[in-house]
Amino acid sequence: MVNLSEVTFAYDQDIVIQNLTLTIDRGSFTAVIGPNGAGKSTVLKLIAGLLTPRTGTVMVSGQDVRTARLGGLIGYVPQNYGKNVCGFPATVEEVVRLGTIAGQHDRHFSQSAVNHIVNHMLELVGCQGIRKKRIGDLSGGQQQRVMVARALAGNPELLLLDEPTSGVDYEASEKIYELLGQLNQNLDVTVIMVSHDIEKATHWADKVACINRGLCFFGDSQEFNLNHIQSRHLWFYNG
Ligand SMILES: Nc1ncnc2c1ncn2[C@@H]1O[C@H](COP(=O)(O)OP(=O)(O)OP(=O)(O)O)[C@@H](O)[C@H]1O
Ligand SMILES: [Mg+2]
């Protein structure tokens, strides 16, 4: 589903990703972990086609990532979305409605179909009760949930989530993990999720990628959990 080949990326002069090669299978659920500043969000943005590598290639579903992005294959939930939306005048349901546009690249949904998707997604993330509120007026955790709903509304084949449960309370984050697990298992959505909650993330994910400028570990989450301590060493001391 995703193929990064010898990817190097720099913001200005600072190289933050060096020679990263990574293959993610269709239908898998990958947890991306690593310390602050390791380049996890940068890797997600490269896979989302929001950043362009200096060298190397990023392919999604066998095509250049920019083509895949335009085709609506990719759903993306950014980190700390709330910081960007203070004062944004749209309501929760309008934000989720915008998400349905990505799913309509090769077909057109009727108004009632769009309404149905919006209702369903709001229900999935438990935000029916706040649908008329302005997005900028929500708490950080509520905003995260709305962003998950918006990404899902596009019916993506690949879902990228950057710390989707940060700031979300225990019950709601359980729901988000469960929802991601169901989408992955039942609808075959490929999920790549950055998280600092290693225990939870590796419980739900079947693969783990530890990133610290490069790839320090990639393998089954079971294998990772067995070697948890050693793996921690690997990513902290590599790079
Ligand atoms: N827009 C930017 N311009 C310049 N440097 C940046 C930019 N975004 C990130 N960086 C730098 O790139 C490096 C990797 O950042 P990135 O956000 O990918 O880390 P991260 O692993 O997601 O960290 P965290 O766990 O804190 O979210 C950091 O050193 C950061 O300071
Ligand atoms: Mg980050």
Automatic annotation (TrEMBL):
PROSITE patterns associated with the record: ABC_TRANSPORTER_1 (PS00211), ABC_TRANSPORTER_2 (PS50893)
Alphabetically ordered keywords of this record: ATP-binding, Hydrolase, Nucleotide-binding, Transport
CDD domains, per database record: ABC_Metallic_Cations
One Pfam family matching this protein: ABC_tran
ABC transporter domain sequence ranges: 2-238
The EC number(s) this enzyme carries: 3.6.3.-
Gene Ontology molecular function terms on file: ATP binding; ATP hydrolysis activity
Family membership noted in the UniProt record: Belongs to the ABC transporter superfamily.
Name recorded for this polypeptide: High-affinity zinc uptake system ATP-binding protein ZnuC
Organism listed in the record: bioreactor metagenome
